[in-house]
Amino acid sequence: MVTTVVDARPVADGLAAASVADRLAACAQVGGQVDSTYRWRGEVETATEWSVQFKTVPDRVSELVDRIRADHPYDVPEILVSRVECDPAYAAWVRENTHV
Amino acid sequence: MVTTVVDARPVADGLAAASVADRLAACAQVGGQVDSTYRWRGEVETATEWSVQFKTVPDRVSELVDRIRADHPYDVPEILVSRVECDPAYAAWVRENTHV
Amino acid sequence: MVTTVVDARPVADGLAAASVADRLAACAQVGGQVDSTYRWRGEVETATEWSVQFKTVPDRVSELVDRIRADHPYDVPEILVSRVECDPAYAAWVRENTHV
């Protein structure tokens, strides 16, 4: 599972659509608004962001991360990768939809 | 932690309530609406879904997953399992509420 | 990544702000409302809660967890720790903002 956040809903939608269209992810979910607090260049700031959660197979993760980084408007985007388990039928569906 | 998504809020609520009532999970959280993009039978589609996040102990995971799959309306539901750490007091609370 | 839930939005905002101000987390995201079902003292109850997700480095996790527990209004708060991977640039940003 790969997740990112971005401060514009259309960009979040675009990241989700492109990843599925190009078979880098089998599905992508854009969640509701989140309110982020963070430190940037020494100052504590806040921003409204949208989370995007991508489901893919291990051998597509690095291509998906590279694509998100290339399309993301931030200099240093938050792109997190975590391993999850699922049942064989769902794993097969993800594999089928992330390979031609 | 076990998570799923489903395209009907009442079904999400039902999955959450049943898991806690039957001590398969100590708690379950239905999140806000997510907008999903996915490929189904070769076509890229979108749907509105709700996420459900269940907290349980390792020895109840497979029963919980089986129950979610049995109650879920999809042929191939997304049911993801990830391991999280927590402090002993919370772990004891989860164990207490997932065993009779 | 550390996550918690709490039943008051101002408390969620406070947990997020304090963690970043005190460099226990590089960023914290308060998500939308979640509807929780749980068992408390034998009864199944429901509550509206807000999730807070903190991003930090491994060597700051226990201090962050202790701080959340100290500031959290619950007797036994849900504070979950999960390991995620990210790219070196983001990891450096998190490290820089969780150390003086």
UniProtKB/TrEMBL annotation, chains A, B, C:
SUPFAM superfamilies xrefs: GlnB-like
One GO MF term: copper ion binding
Pfam families: CutA1 (PF03091)
Gene3D superfamilies: 3.30.70.120
Superkingdom, taxonomy of origin: Bacteria
GO biological process: response to metal ion
Family (UniProt): Belongs to the CutA family.
PANTHER family given in the database record: DIVALENT CATION TOLERANCE CUTA-RELATED, FI09726P
Protein name per Swiss-Prot or TrEMBL: Divalent cation tolerance protein
Organism in which the protein naturally occurs: Micromonospora halophytica
